[in-house]
Amino acid sequence: MRNHIRLAAGIAALCGTAAFASEPPAPSDVVYTDTGAVEASLTGQPGDAASGAAIAGDKSVGNCVACHMISDLADVPFQGEVGPPLDGAGSRWSEAELRGIVANAKKTFPETMMPSFYKNEGYIRPGDAYTGDAPSGPLEPILTAQQVEDVVAYLMTLKE
Amino acid sequence: MMTRTITAMAVALMATGTFAQAQDLVINGEIPITTRAPAPDFVPAFSEVISGWEFRSPETQQLETDDFENPGMLFVEAAREAFSEPLKEGGQSCADCHESPEALAGARAVYPKWDEEHGEVQTIEMQINECITERAGAEPWGYVSTEMDNMSALMSAVSRGMPVNVATDGPAHETWKQGEEMYYTRYGQLELSCANCHEDNYGNMIRADHLSQGQINGFPAYRLKNAKLNSVHDRFKGCIRDTRAQTFKPGSPEFVALELYVASRGNGLSVEGPSVRN
Question: What is the pTM of this model?
């Protein structure tokens, strides 16, 4: 009986720490270097490059191609020219730098037009997604921690 | 460093002109439209202001050259009829005070403008509703409604070709400053200002859209996308919504201020509404 309780408590404690370890940091807790990079993975898990490619091309998710040309996504029509082409981004930047750019590009490029994808406060009149209405609850970042990691993994495959 | 390189690239691109300068715009072979004018001093970002017409495809541009092809003109015709219909049962019509729509030529070009009596800046829609309620004693039209959009299109149509000449000084100045501030405010979860898209990136593609300077000289605009007239505040609402922001309401003091400021950025361009856009 005693043993059982101890065991149960032990499992609960283990699960507790495990869940805590994989819980991504709140956007305001992400640590940026002076130059805007984020060294630590937001999830502790490697990102999935294929999923990252889908996120980058999809209008309703990352929509990176709204502003960036990505030759690797040639099948995605209407690529924008507001930001620089992302071809070769994985050679120009380290993984930590790319994570910082995707999470909050303003730490790398002050004042940049690029939206901050892992941020959920400090906005002027934020809305409920694209409805034009006031938000109904607390804001979520535009991309989840895992989606950020997936996009970073994808960018790392874009070599010169 | 990076930022500077990219800005320099953007400037170089713009200088060479990434958008086609098509033929001049002349409507019905008789109304020449000024689609480029020297930028006002308070717009240091560029030397020329350019009508949205120049950024559209040749097919869309073509539709605006002839009133029989411009679908917006059907709504102008509807407003022409409404002009002489009583605003309420047995009441007055616009024509009782204004001999003809043409008698109001030139009005559109100076709106929004300061209204002494009400002590506020008024858009042309507000002025139309003032006539309807205070002069004709009838019920106001919706700020964004078919009747209002049609009448606003008629007011533009009779002023086509005249230079936009909105006053930014005097009693309107405070409202104008409010609009200027809004123009540079980065709204919404995407944190984008009007200037991010229409000042820093006009001429560039954003997804499928060719960004213009976001001028309002062509409003109301007939959009092929939704096949109807779109008022200025409708457009502002859509652009702000697209930044994942909570928008302002059409007819709100905020949008009136923004309209005054944006209109003044196009001073010198011709009144062009109802324009055709995609």
Answer: 0.91
